[in-house]
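ugh ok so i messed up the first submission bc i forgot one of the chains. this is the corrected input, ALL of the components this time, i swear. 749 residues overall. if the numbers dont match what u have on ur side tell me asap before i send this to the collaborators (the ones from the other lab, u know who)
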Amino acid sequence: MIGIEHYIVLSMALFCIGLFGVLTRRNALMFLMSVELMLNAANINLVAFAFYHGNITGQIFALFTIALAAAEVAIGLGIILVLYRNFRDVDVTVPSQMRW
Amino acid sequence: MRFEPPNVTEMNEWIAVGMLAFVGLLIPLGMMAVSYLIRPSVPETSKRATYESGEVPTGGTRIRFNIQYYMVALLFLIFDIETVLLFPWAVVYLDAVESDAVSLAEILGPMLIFVAILLVGLAWAWRSGAVQWARSPFQVEAEADRP
Amino acid sequence: MFPIELSEWAALAPVYILVLSAMVLFVFDSINPRTTNRAFLAGTTTAGSLAALAVAVWFLLAGVGTPQADGGFGAISLFDGQLVVDQLALFFIVVVTVVTSLVSIASYDYMKGHTYQAEYYTLTLLAATGMATMAASNSLVTIFIALELASLPSYALVSILKDNRGSIEGGLKYFLIGALSSAIFVYGISLVYGATGFMQLDAIAENLDADYGPLLGLGILMLIGGFAFKTASVPFHFWAPEAYEGAPAPIAAFLSSASKAAGFVIAFRVFTTAFPLEPTASVIGVDWTVAFIILAIVTMTIGNFAAATQTNVKRMLAYSSVGHAGYALIGLAGLGAGANDVVMGAALMHLFVYGFMNTGAFLFVGLAEHWGVGRTFEDYNGLSAKAPIACVAMTVFMFSLAGIPPFGGFFSKYFLFTASIDAGLLFVAAALVINSALSLYYYSRLVKALWIEEPVLERESLSQPVGLYAAIVFAAVMTVVVLPGFGPVADAAVDAAAAVVA
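and heres the new structure output, hopefully the right one now
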């Protein structure tokens, strides 16, 4: 029987993979994909917990998360596009006119 | 959190998963091996062409696509995903219709408002040229001085 | 009390007005794309946000959502408690709509000649809608949706100057850190949901279960990450200087005042409603105020020390905005020591006054950019000779931000100081005083540049754009007149805080 803890381990692993990608990748698109991994890790949790607790809130919220993630990607791709037009690159470390 | 000790039935389920993975790998690999053994080998240059129909490809594969591809893709992404939000509404729709507690206007109203807002967004995207495939020279010129 | 009997859904009228104005702009832009009718666009935005402001003030005065225990009407809960309209929500809707009106008036001049006029104002209104909804959210679901509704337009607004590298860079960094923190925030929500089985804040408080202590603790930690991003506090403050410096100045004002206030309201509501101090401490084993005490001290220190070393005025204001987030965090750090409503009320007052003085200061920078005088302290030298009115206003903002007695900023800081002493947080009170003293140094540097230093270059006479001037002067007047009017504001803030901390 697959218990709730298996899902937590899976989602934690996915979240950590995403976080690793965020911290190491310099390509803006890879960054976006890594963030998507992290969001989907949360979705796994939400659906698994919804099943575990026997209420549907988590599943509905997962749907909202998916929609919002898509909206975020749309905005993100737009910004990456103007980034490319201005800097001829999608490396997130290239724009550094201002200090961090 | 509760951790249950492994029992025999649990092991059996995992064996089934392992078998599925094993068979899933075995079939395609087996088919590839068999076809490798029985197929005749006739090397010929035309077989290595990108399009075996005879079309000669021009230019490299890493070309820049028209920006409109991305525009349409992004619009599709947004509107496709928004329909997901209608899903919970559809799930409770039948129950709501059957119960007397809520009127039909209360059931349909929120969904219609949601779709109306989406339609306003689509109309806006349409009018601002996000779904326009080709531009006439006049339009291109008007676009050029848009910072 | 109630002049007119309204049905319950009308309690969200300010939010509806904001949405409707945004839709009007959408339809107008669809019918008449690429319009240059700036008067209509800025006018609709201003009218919409002023109408929302008027309704919110009316509700606040009429006593909508006052606690039933004091003979009030009780908090109005809508959509099965997903949204709640109480005094706290109305107070922050007022702050958000005030800032939105100031920003839209100022944008009339600042965004002159810009191509994406309708888009700019529509996004501003949508972001304001998101912030107003954040103020009324009472469930982790609505909080997240409202937070994204406020964030997504902000990303686009920061990078709206498509050919300005600074704007793109600021927008990119804002987006990257925002996307990361919202992913962490959602994961935190999923863990809290896993530990309690509910998303609604009251239900979470009733279902804190000792079996899931570690899960809940990790979830709360991740939620703090999300709040830190929205309020530009440590550890997610990196985006603030870049985004504020690169963004158009009115947008920087909008983000640093309204967006920060909205971030604080959800933090206040979540931590007081969903995670009451003692039950949560017994489940996760630590007191969450400790986290906020550390964050408050670190945030105000980092913000002020970084601000003191800047040469660019906009960047100095950006770091000072990080420092002010640290002051407002005292509102959470000081809970649990008795006078909860006073501590949080002081933070609300500070955010209210900050809404005027910080917006005004960023708009003055916008005015300077409009004149094209440059960005550093030296470029501001001797501006008072050419534009005395604006410089008086800027001086008011600077001294108020520093917390000099005759202005609004002094009172809110004074309340924060006494409240943190009452709460026994001597370290925090000391940090507040030291940082305020340090901030006086760099704020007065700018005042000195404006009034005393001689200009490096001879200047032509400077234009007087009506919209920017009106917004700046109004903000300055408000920063001063909250002094005699501080009683009602303080009462409203303490009442609003009492509604949630009880």
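quick check: Residues 4-87 of chain A form a domain with the Helix Hairpins fold (CATH 1.10.287.3510). that seems consistent at least. Chain A has one domain: 4-87.
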